[in-house]
Q: What sequence folds into this?
């Protein structure tokens, strides 16, 4: 029992859980591992989709809960949340004493966990390092990579980038995307159409007709999120197409976007949009597979949509530098340009599936490396 390798997953949003789910189950079911979970951030907040019931249903027992999110929806709240989270993650990690801490992506809460784990001399495994994007997220992603010891990247360009950043090549593994693996294994037939039209608020969606998905999150580096989302709202309204619109994440600027959505609903009696806060990972994946187009600034429009060949309209700078396929039309925050791009994408229809982010057996590849990789804490710059 004492020889089990303790693997601690940091989960700070519903999306983190969805994208780590297959890997987490592999680890949890292996007798040579002891699975630990530290759950915090929006993953514990009801309005963003509290995942604790999902974790219990999926058989995860060793779970620590950290309530660190400070209300405010601005950069000050985000910065203070990061500081508080460092303290709380330190306490939780000291209690769990993991051998490996598994982090994913570029979230500010994840940066807090990386800082805590590094100072506690824990081996850190980072998923999705080396990617480029926009706003403060890219800087956070690279900072987490520099604190990490084992890297699981989604594509070869990201691997090369990490090596150029001084990471040891033997510890940088190109494994593909967990997001795409989860998506590929989710059948579209599980979509519960009736349930979706009782979830959230707004128009009833006719699934016999084309519909789009809209996901527009805040940009934290000084952009006018209220003005920008109003351009998108106007574009969707004027296009006349049915839409599922997902509420923004918890980043600075979320209150401005939420306010714009509420005002839109109050000022319009007729619209074809259903506003939804969150769905289960499986229902969201199935919904993506049935959509005609994805609009906004979510990474789903870059990665998941590329694999599905789903037409996407990428708005603004939030994803501006990501490795992207031919399925995307990039536009600025202008309702005319957004509406025209949607029209073009709906007329075009499906694109060929891309393997930019796909690699068979991603979770199994990561699992095998977590099982056998040497543990170390003192990093050396690879020159």
A:
């Amino acid at each position: 029992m004492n020889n089990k390798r303790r693997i601690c997953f940091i989960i700070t949003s519903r999306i983190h859980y969805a994208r780590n789910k297959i890997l987490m189950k592999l680890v949890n079911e292996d007798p040579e591992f002891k699975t630990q979970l530290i759950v915090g951030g929006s993953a514990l907040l009801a309005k963003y989709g509290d995942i604790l019931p999902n974790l219990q249903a999926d058989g995860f027992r060793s779970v620590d809960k950290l309530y660190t999110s400070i209300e405010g929806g601005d950069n000050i709240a985000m910065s203070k949340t990061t500081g508080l989270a460092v303290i709380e993650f330190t306490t939780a990690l000291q209690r769990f004493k993991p051998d490996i801490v598994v982090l994913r992506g570029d979230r500010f809460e994840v940066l807090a966990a990386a800082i805590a784990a590094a100072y506690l001399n824990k081996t850190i495994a980072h998923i999705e390092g080396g990617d480029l994007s926009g706003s403060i997220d890219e800087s956070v992603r690279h900072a987490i990579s520099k604190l990490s010891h084992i890297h699981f990247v989604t594509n070869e360009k990201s691997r090369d980038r990490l090596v150029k950043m001084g990471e040891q090549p033997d510890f940088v593994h190109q494994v593909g995307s967990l997001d795409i693996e989860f998506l590929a294994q989710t059948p579209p037939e599980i979509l519960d159409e009736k349930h979706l039209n009782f979830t959230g608020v707004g128009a009833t969606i006719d699934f016999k007709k084309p519909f789009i998905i809209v996901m527009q999150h805040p940009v934290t580096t000084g952009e006018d999120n209220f003005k920008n989302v109003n351009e998108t709202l106007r574009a969707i309204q004027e296009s006349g197409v049915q839409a599922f619109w997902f509420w923004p994440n918890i980043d600075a600027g979320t209150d401005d976007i939420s306010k714009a959505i509420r005002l839109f609903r109050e000022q319009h009696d007729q619209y074809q949009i259903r506003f939804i806060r969150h769905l289960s990972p499986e229902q969201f994946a199935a919904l993506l597979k049935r959509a005609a187009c994805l609009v906004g600034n979510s990474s789903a429009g870059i990665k998941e949509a590329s694999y599905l060949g789903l037409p996407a309209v990428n708005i603004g700078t939030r994803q501006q530098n990501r490795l992207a396929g031919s399925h995307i039309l990039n536009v600025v925050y202008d309702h005319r340009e957004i509406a025209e791009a949607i029209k073009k994408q709906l007329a075009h229809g499906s694109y060929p599936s891309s393997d930019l982010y796909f690699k068979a057996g991603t979770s199994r590849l990561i699992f095998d490396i977590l099982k056998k990789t040497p543990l170390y804490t003192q990093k050396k710059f690879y020159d």
